[in-house]
Amino acid sequence: MIRYLLNRIIILLFFVTLVLSLAESGVVSAYAETGNEVDELKLEAEEATLSGLTVQDDMPGYSGTGYVGNFTEDDAKVTFTMDVPDKALYNLTVGYGGIYGGGKHANIQLNGEAFTSFELGEGFGESPVGKVLLNEGSNTIAFTPNWTHFAIDFIKLSLAQPSIDHEVKKQLINPNATTETKTLFSYLVDNFGKNIISGQQDDANNDLADVKYIKELTGKTPAILGLDLMDYSPSRVERGAVSHDVDLALEWSEKGGIVAFAWHWNAPKDLLDTEEQPWWSGFYTDATTFDVEYAMNHPESEDYQLLIRDIDAIAEQLRRLQEENVPVLWRPLHEAEGGWFWWGAKGPEPTIKLWKVMYDRLTNYHELNNLIWVWNSVDPAWYPGDDYVDIVSFDSYPGAYNYSPQNNNYEALVDLSSNKKLIAMTENGPIPDPDMLDRYHSMYSYFTTWIGLITENNSKEHLQKVYNHEKVITLEELPDLTTYGQEKSSDTSLQNLTVSTGQLSPGFSKNVKEYTLEVEKTVDEIILSPVANSHSATVTINGNTDLTKGIKLQSGDNIIHIEVTAEDGTKSKYLIRVKRLTSYLSLDLVKKSDHYVLPDKSIENLDINGLLELKIPKNTDHLQIVFNHEQMKSLKEKNNKIHVRKDDLRMNYNMKLFPSDSPLTLSIERIEEKALEHGEHATTKLYDLRFEQNDRVISQFSSSVQLSFLMKKPNDNQKIYYWNIQQSEWIGIGGKIENKWITAETDHFTIFSVFDEKELSQASDHDKQVEHKTDANEQPSTDQKKDKMDKEVIGMEQGKLTTDDSKKEQSLPNTATSMYNWLVIGGITLLFGIGALLFRRLKRN
Question: At what angle do helices 460-467 and 209-218 cross, to 10 degrees?
Fold first, then answer.
């Protein structure tokens, strides 16, 4: 038994020794890196929990080892489980397989609850589906079929970035909008992102049954009444349709409510009018053969003229509202991208053309200025453009009792409008939970629950919560929209902000509160001219109400505070950081591991043609100064001069010397006096100076560099010399002496020092005499000595090993030595074990 254990111990010790030696040499170090944090979590579907699904790999293009399909049954489900450290919003991206064609939809469940759905493209791909709020610890994300026959490949999660403020301006696309329309839009903008306005679609034939139900259940009334101009379509009127929705809108406006109109536009002609597709369903693609593409491409055709006829008929009804000063949230051509309505049946191009024709006809021809134009599509390919849209929107039907915020559509609309338009949920089944809207930063301007779905898609408890929520605006909480904005203003925004010198960065915007300004060194005073958006607001600059007074500037950074106080006492502050450039800047270098750098953003205050002084720490004889790309670009563009200041060496040069903006390294290396012939006669230290850029040494300059050395005992015989490698001798470049400093100019870099001209000449003459007297066979010639010295100097300039380094080169590398040591230890241990085993056997015998 003891012998068995002893064998095992020997084997174990040998294995440990081997592993440690391999680890020392870096063989297993890579595995330690697998614990690093990653910005994104990716989970493969084949590793998830499956129900009614299988892992497949028939179709190429998937991630991992396969994908999950085929979702042929309604109860099929793939469930991903993940742990997260904190409760937070995460971006969700889904890798899908549209292996049976694109355009299909999949439902998403979050922690067991219905969440949202998304559309799959064709083939394998991935789609961002917005944000998900994950709880600390374990969470699940599951996928079920909305449409069948598709595959799920993987999901990716990453921590969501903080939301940014909206940039919606109180500016309608129609510059001639009525006062009432501007007032309503102003209220919508003020409210956007803070609260959501409640709305309900209804009609006169329904006797406002849904609106009345909400009032009876919650004690509150929707603020927006959604109505439809459908039965004013000429092809319906000629068949006996009658509508009173405009009358209802006038009554609603009298109550202080907001009016919204859609238009289920019955096709102007070519209605099928069959038992399956009756005339009153003529807005559906399947109920008509009317070709919108043909009509828009042939303005001279009857089809086109009938479109204009219908628009004119609707204009009459909208005019009735304008004459009564009623603004309208106007949403024609809705859900075009779905293709189920005839105006979207032929793709985006004819729909966009029709939208623009309608805008021009209603706005310019009929001069209807009471319309706020609401576009109703998420797909960028269908968007008519910012100049034709006031509000972007989508219609939300995620399934009954699904109160999720539909954040994916919200963010898609933010992107569609470049964050510059109001965003609305213009139709919905279930009303999104206001708390979730707040957490997901998806507070729509308003929602409008579709007629008949208020009870089918929403529980009583949910409706009571929504209509009594502090962030939901009801009719009872609407301000008087006829006088809105005429009360004490809380507007603290600026209409404009100009400066007497320079240019603000970024350019002025009402939503920007902080600016920077850069002025030249000659500018010691500026005048700021802020103009408040509200005439009743007051403005101060650094506490002064006299806005005409100049503001004194010091060199470098200056801070200016602008404060706007609204009529109701609300205050808003603006910050202007003014940088007055300077012609001279002195900096202490910052020490890194093996080089020095300039402090971050330290040269921003330096003016054009300014001088930058770099102070080298005392007693530093070996250093590298690195200029990064941004610093090089700035210094070259401003034509700055550099003054390097060392306790015994100074140099001046212009950054235009260098051919590019690439990082630049200035090396200053002290050379031992004995390393070069006659070096011991130098009256200052020997310095090897070198510029390196783009992995090459810059030794010749297009203009001169000025060098200065500090002299211990100045006399007129002392000059600056450089070492000529080719001639193996010191060559003088002269020098002017002033205040113990000798200065000269050079057009190249090598090794420099200061010599007494007479002393160096005498030393050279002495060498020549010795050379003639010395037997060439007894000792190396002077040329051989020079060759040896030249090789040493060239080696130093090329960064080769010194004598000490050569010795180091003969020894083993650290990793090899360590591995060798471990193997020796292992060997000794092995021998010890074998010896003990033999001893025990001999003892037994």
Answer: 80
Task: Give the pLDDT confidence of 229-282 residue by residue, as tens digits.
Answer: 999 999 999 999 999 999 999 999 999 999 999 999 999 999 999 999 999 999
Contact 709, 649 (CB under 8 A): yes
Residues near 510 by beta carbon (within 8 Å), at least 6 away in sequence: 169, 493, 494, 495, 533
DSSP letters for 414-469: HHHTTT-SEEEEEEESSPPPHHHHHHTT---SBEEEPTTHHHHSS-HHHHHHHHT-
Strands (E), 295-417: 328-331, 371-376, 391-396
Alpha-carbon Rg for the chain in angstroms = 41
Give, in degrees to the nearest 5, the angle at Cα 678 between 673 and 682.
60
As a whole number of angstroms, the distance between CA 173 and CA 420 comes to: 12
User: What is the C-alpha to C-alpha distance for residues 457 and 402, in angstroms, rounded to an integer?
Assistant: 8
C-alpha span between 685 and 707 (Å, rounded): 13
| Phi, psi (deg, nearest 5) at residue 830 | -65, -45
Going by the DSSP 8-state scheme, the letter that residue 758 receives in this structure is H
Q: What angle, 0 to 180 degrees and rounded to 10, lies between the N-to-C axes of helices 814-844 and 2-24? A: 170
- Rounded to an integer, what distance in angstroms lies between the CA atom of residue 38 and that of residue 156? 12
CA dihedral (293, 298, 299, 303) positive or negative: negative
Residue 745 pairs with which residues in a beta bridge? 706
Length of the chain, in residues: 845
Q: Backbone phi, then psi, for 770, in 5-degree steps?
A: -65, -35
**Catalytic residue from among 24, 44, 427, 797:** 427
Residue 834 confidence class, pLDDT cut points 50, 70, 90 = low
CA dihedral defined by 775, 776, 779, 783, rounded to 10 degrees?
130
pTM of the model: 0.56
Q: For helices 782-797 and 757-773, give the axis angle rounded to 10 degrees.
A: 130
Residue 333 CB-density burial (10 A; 0-12 exposed, 13-18 middle, 19+ buried):
buried
For CA atoms 687, 688, 694, 700, the dihedral sign is positive
* Alpha-carbon span 113 to 118, nearest angstrom: 16
Angle, helices 245-254 vs 302-323, to 10°: value is: 30
DSSP structural state of residue 192: T
Task: Considering the candidates 46, 180, 335, 411, report the single residue annotated as catalytic.
Answer: 335
Amino acid (one-letter) located at 693: Q
Report residue 623 as tokens: 């250093």
pLDDT, tens digit, 9 for 90 and up, residues 387-442:
999 999 999 999 999 999 999 999 999 999 999 999 999 999 999 999 999 999 99
Q: How far is CA 527 from CA 497, 531, 550, 551, in A?
A: 11, 13, 5, 6
Tens digit of each residue's pLDDT (9 = 90 or more) over 398-410: 999 999 999 999 9
What confidence category does residue 601 fall into, taking pLDDT thresholds of 50, 70 and 90?
Answer: confident
How is residue 469 written in tokens? Answer: 């929520």
Active site residue 335: yes
Amino acid letter for position 223: A
Alpha helices for 658-718 (secondary structure H): none
